[in-house]
């Protein structure tokens, strides 16, 4: 968590390049067949439960088992590695990049994630707050709930197995909640953003500044 | 009543292993038996407890306070529970006549394998109940039902040991055996083995059978992990899922899904398959597919 926020620098960075670049890697070894071309516009998942898959990006075939990989965000296809089309690739080989246009809210969140301690999902699972934290949030709101290292803050539910998730960061209040309790969260996605109490004014300043300066 | 670790080990190596002679080579069966051997290495029996899972925590605290490492495979059995509970804030009716136990396992599995542990617990329960003459089936993930009534339930949690902070899986299992009286709110939705078979069963015998099968299936899970680590990125045979599918009636059923389906049902769908990771793939009414890795279902067709 940093005190030194250079607002002008950060804001001009987002003004000159208001995009997020999402790299897509081969999920496992296999033969690749691209289903998009560079410059194509793609959409991410939609539907009430995000159950309607995004645009198909590529197929990967391993031992006659073909999987279609779809886009998890909207944007434009960049840096597609056409030379790999029809070829066998190793797991984690970079295949393409999606340039995702950021909305104002996403820009605020991106900046905040640089200054908050962000706690990420350890596994793809459903998460909900630990009962004690949930009741404190209901009584006073998340931004009044202080968490300390070692606190049981969340419960991860995967295949009907509940696992307490213990907070391992700086002491602070729950400033941002990035998931809806009981909703499926991908591994590595942010769950909560924690802010040390004395840094709250700084956070508020960031939000106000971005809101004011970003049309 | 004193439960014997030796009798559990005997069931595992002689009964369970022998019964699968046509499925696995002798060397593989020996390996699975060795992997499953710690189950029941420490076993406590109580006439009455609050919760078996809480007693496991207390045992672990005692061990660690004395500077000892708690035993993976520790089992606590109670004749009746005062505060039996299920997931969320649901209570679990656990009077005398049923089998109520908790088993602690050290978290040594890789994530692809540990996610199959709730399936393994369900398989062991289902095999036990079928052996007692009731052809129960598994409802994703590990509810045991027969004729749309619940006979057994499994609760899987992860706990941190109190002093050293090591991670353990704790599996809570409840089987309605001879307990024929249920609270009003469970009328029509729960039943005991005796209610179906018409015969009183020996609870101790059921406990030994279950522990032997837990030993086998947890051993198989370890063996599955060994195979997975050998093949690396290649496709691997999922023994656990294959067995689970043999015992389940979930695929093809019309269901209502929710994270807490009793309090907040989310949608209706038809179960298309259970994928290689254990995820429930469902076909929604609009023709699209959705895959869930958590939550629960209730059957809403009358195919039971």
3D architecture notes:
The complex is a heterodimer of chains A (215) and B (304). By secondary structure, chain A is α+β, with helices and mostly antiparallel strands. Chain A has 2 domains: 19-101, RNA polymerase II/Efflux pump adaptor protein, barrel-sandwich hybrid domain (OB fold (Dihydrolipoamide Acetyltransferase, E2P)); 104-213, RNA polymerase II/Efflux pump adaptor protein, barrel-sandwich hybrid domain (OB fold (Dihydrolipoamide Acetyltransferase, E2P)). Chain A is built from 4 helices and 16 strands. Chain A has helices at 7-16, 104-115, 131-140, 200-213, and strands at 19-25, 30-34, 41-42, 56-62, 65-70, 75-78, 88-89, 94-101, 117-120, 125-129, 146-147, 152-158, 161-166, 172-177, 184-185, 190-195. In chain A, the strands form 4 sheets. In chain A, strands 1-8-6-3 form a 4-stranded antiparallel sheet, with no helix packed on it. A 4-stranded antiparallel sheet of chain A has the order 5-4-2-7, with no helix packed on it. In chain A, α2 packs antiparallel against α4 (200-213). Chain A is globular, with a radius of gyration of 20 Å. The mean pLDDT of chain A is 88. With 304 residues, chain B is α+β, with helices and mostly antiparallel strands. Chain B has 2 domains: 5-231, BirA Bifunctional Protein, domain 2; 251-299, Roll (SH3 type barrels), CATH 2.30.30.100. Chain B has 8 helices and 12 strands. Chain B has helices at residues 5-19, 26-36, 52-65, 111-114, 117-131, 193-197, 203-231, 239-247, and strands at 43-49, 75-81, 99-106, 137-139, 143-146, 149-160, 167-175, 254-258, 267-274, 280-284, 289-292, 296-299. In chain B, the strands form 2 sheets. In chain B, strands 1-2-3-7-6-5-4 form a 7-stranded mixed sheet, with helices on both faces. In chain B, a hairpin with a 4-residue loop joins β10 and β11. The longest helix of chain B is centred in the last third of the chain and has 29 residues, at 203-231. In chain B, 42% of the residues are buried. The chains are: A alpha+beta (215), B alpha+beta (304). Chains A and B meet through β13 of A and α5, β6 and β11 of B.
């Amino acid at each position: 968590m940093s005190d030194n926020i250079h607002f002008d620098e950060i804001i001009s960075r987002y003004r000159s390049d208001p995009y997020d670049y999402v790299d897509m890697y081969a999920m496992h070894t296999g033969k690749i067949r691209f289903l998009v071309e560079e410059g194509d516009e793609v959409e991410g998942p939609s539907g009430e439960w995000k159950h309607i898959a995004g645009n198909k990006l590529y197929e990967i075939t391993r031992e006659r088992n073909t999987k279609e990989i779809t886009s998890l965000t909207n944007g434009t296809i960049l840096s597609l590695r056409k030379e790999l089309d029809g070829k066998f690739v190793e797991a984690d080989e970079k295949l393409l990049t999606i340039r995702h246009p950021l909305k104002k809210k996403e820009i605020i969140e991106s900046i905040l994630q640089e200054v908050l301690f962000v706690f990420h999902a350890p596994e793809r699972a459903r998460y909900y707050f630990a009962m004690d934290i949930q009741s404190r949030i209901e009584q006073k709101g998340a931004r009044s709930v202080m968490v300390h290292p070692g606190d049981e803050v969340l419960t991860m539910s995967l295949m009907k197995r509940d696992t307490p998730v213990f907070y391992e960061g700086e002491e602070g209040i729950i400033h941002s909640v990035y998931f809806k309790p009981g909703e499926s969260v991908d591994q590595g996605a942010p769950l909560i953003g924690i802010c040390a109490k004395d840094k709250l004014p700084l956070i508020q300043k960031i939000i106000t500044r971005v809101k004011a300066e970003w049309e | 009543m004193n439960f014997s670790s030796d009798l559990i080990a005997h069931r595992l190596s002689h009964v369970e292993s022998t019964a699968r002679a046509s499925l696995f080579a002798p060397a593989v069966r020996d390996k699975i038996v060795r992997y499953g051997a710690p189950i029941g290495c420490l076993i406590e029996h109580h006439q009455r407890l609050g919760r078996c899972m809480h007693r496991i925590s207390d045992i672990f605290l005692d061990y660690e306070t004395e500077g000892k490492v708690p035993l993976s495979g520790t089992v606590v059995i109670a004749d009746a529970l005062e505060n039996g509970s299920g997931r969320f804030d649901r209570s679990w009716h656990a009077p005398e006549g049923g089998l109520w136990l908790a088993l602690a396992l050290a978290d040594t599995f890789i994530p692809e394998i540990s996610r199959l542990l709730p399936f393994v617990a369900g398989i062991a329960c289902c095999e036990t109940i079928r052996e007692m003459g009731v052809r129960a089936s598994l409802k994703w993930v590990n509810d045991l039902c027969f004729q749309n009534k619940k006979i057994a339930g499994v609760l899987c949690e992860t706990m941190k040991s109190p002093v050293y902070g090591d991670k353990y899986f704790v599996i809570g299992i409840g089987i309605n055996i001879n307990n024929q009286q249920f609270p009003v709110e469970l009328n029509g939705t729960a039943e005991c083995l005796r209610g179906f078979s018409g015969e009183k069963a020996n609870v101790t015998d059921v406990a030994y059978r279950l522990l032997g099968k837990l030993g086998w299936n947890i051993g198989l899970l370890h063996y599955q992990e060994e195979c997975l680590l050998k093949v690396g990125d290649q496709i691997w045979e999922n023994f656990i899922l294959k067995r689970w599918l043999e015992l389940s009636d979930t695929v093809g059923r019309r269901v209502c899904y929710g994270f807490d389906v009793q309090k907040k049902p989310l949608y209706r769908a038809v179960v298309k398959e259970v994928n290689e990771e254990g995820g429930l793939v469902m076909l929604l009414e609009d023709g699209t597919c959705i895959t869930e890795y958590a939550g629960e279902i209730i059957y809403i067709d009358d195919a039971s």
